[in-house]
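Q: what does this look like with HMH bound?
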Amino acid sequence: MEIEDSAADSHADGPNDSPVPAYAVWRSTAADPAFSEWLRSASEPDWTAVVTHPFAAAIIRGEADMRRYLVQDFQFVDAFTALLGAAVAGADRFESRVPFGRFLGQIVTDTERSYFHRALADLGVGADDLTSPVLEPVTVRFRALMDEARVSQEYPVILAVLCLAEWIYLGWASRAAEPLPERFLHREWIDLHSGPEFEAWVGFLRGELDRIGPSLGEDGQARVLGFFREAARLERGFFDMAEG
Ligand SMILES: Cc1ncc(CO)c(N)n1
């Protein structure tokens, strides 16, 4: 991978590049031998750091200052949307293209886009910061990772980045309990990343990795893991950035 020296690498516990047993070895003793679970468990401690991040907790309490985060995330979503297009193109069968196409058309380019437009207007974000803000280093790195996955046209690699981003967001957002925050800025952002439909979407992404991952061979599996772990590291850096 060509992403170097992440800003998120400055955590006290260092970059998450500790050795991981190969999938074939790991699965023989794992309680849940799913390929996606191999990826997730190998992404600790970043996984848990994201799901329990103070910024995510502040969103759930309705207290997070969303401005810097959402300005940067709108630029994340741009590259993410392009990556969904690559998944439509790269999936190995029609029935797998469908959920990507549906999520692309019904959620990202509709419900979520509407949220961003209302949220950024509510926060008083001007036209320039909506379309072309100064990117934070972690945003540059995350966009670069998504672009690298997209141009690779490798379905397993594309899936790895999409699945990490969605699954880890389900992780923090699912920690929200009723009553959700009153302000739409926080409430709708939680709603977009939790609930039965979002759970089914993450279930689909995991299922694709579980279907395809085991037969990739050790090098292919290591490549998928590299993208998945780097995305977890960047998610952590992204929430750190949002905290300011
Ligand atoms: C940084 C980041 N990761 C994941 C998601 C969920 O798609 C998001 N909107 N932003």
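The two ends are 28 Å apart (CA to CA). The pocket of HMH is lined by residues 73, 76-77, 80, 165-166, 169, 235, 238 (CB under 6 Å).
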